[in-house]
Amino acid sequence: MVTLLALCSGLTAIRMAFEDRWEFAVFAVLFAAVLDALDGRVARLMKGTSRFGAELDSLADFVNFGVTPALMLYFWILHEAGSIGWIAALVFAIAAALRLARFNVALDDPDKPAWSVHFFTGVPAPAGALTVLIPLYLSFLGILPNWPEFAGPVAVYTGLIAFLMVSRLPTFSGKKFGARIRRDFVLPLIVLAVLIIALTVSYPFRVLAIGSLLYLAAIPLAWRMHRNYLKRDARFAGADDDGDCSDTDLDHLGDRDKDDRG
Fold first, then answer.
1. What is the pLDDT of residue 201?
2. What is the pLDDT of residue 176?
3. Side-chain-facing half-sphere of 182: CA atoms under 13 Å
4. DSSP 21-90
5. Smallest Cα–Cα separation from 176: which of 132, 114, 237?
6. What percent of the chain has pLDDT over 70?
7. Which residues pair with residue 120 across a beta bridge?
8. For residue 16, what pLDDT is reported?
9. How high is the pLDDT of residue 189?
């Protein structure tokens, strides 16, 4: 039900864009992203996870974070670039579909190290949808005029975000965020969450623009941390490469511990 509600929100964003109600369209996409972050957690808490729910979630994500942002940008300014603008919208939607398909396939990979849960491969679809709309946020803030001359640069930017979605660049994952919090950090984090929500309600487009830019700026940091993990694993593999098949597999020790507890 949470996933279907997110899908309704994404489809409503398309209607709002068609009616030139851009603020409501952006809010609908943001609401869909919040619901997408919650549906899996709700299913796990209720012990209601299923393959059907996972497939429905992927289909909803393609519509909400692939088709909807592409159409929003096309209705807003990309149509001024003619066929180039439509191609940029198509490329973004297709990149979202490919990224989601790759994510589903990666779930069945048994050889992933335990630390890989902290990273995504490429920009995830919800983050891609929110970052590709940065030109729209800047337009609301009066920084980027809605002139036909900007259709070309917006098309290039849309293609850049599409490339980041299908790239092999590691990006930070929030899957484990909030799973384990030290007791003395609980109250400060609650205050921080309330502050972020209050700022988003009061200054939505400033928060979205700054947050999206910070996310893009964090990609090099994620790449560096991912590279450090790989180097550490390579050192362990080199130190343990003595031909003894009975040695401990440090890469998957965390996974086996989880299975043993299950």
1. 87
2. 56
3. 3
4. -HHHHHHHHHHHHHHHHHHHHHHHHTT---HHHHHHHHHHHHIIIIIHHHHHHHHHTGGGGTHHHHHHHH
5. 114
6. 85
7. 171
8. 96
9. 81
Sign of CA dihedral 30, 34, 35, 36: positive
Beta bridge partners of 180: none
Q: How far is the C-alpha of 257 from the C-alpha of 247, rounded, in Å?
A: 16
Could you tell me the pTM of the whole model? Answer: 0.83
Give the residue from 212, 47, 238 showing the smallest Cα distance to 140: 212
Residue 53 is encoded by which pair of tokens? 């729910």
Tokens 């940065």 sit at which residue?
134
Tokens representing residue 206 in the block: 């400033």
Taking 70 as the pLDDT cut, the residues of the chain under it are 108-111, 174-181, 238-262
Residue with tokens 């973004």: 92
CA dihedral 14, 15, 19, 21 (to 10 degrees): -70
Interhelix angle for 22-45 vs 51-62, to 10°?
A: 170
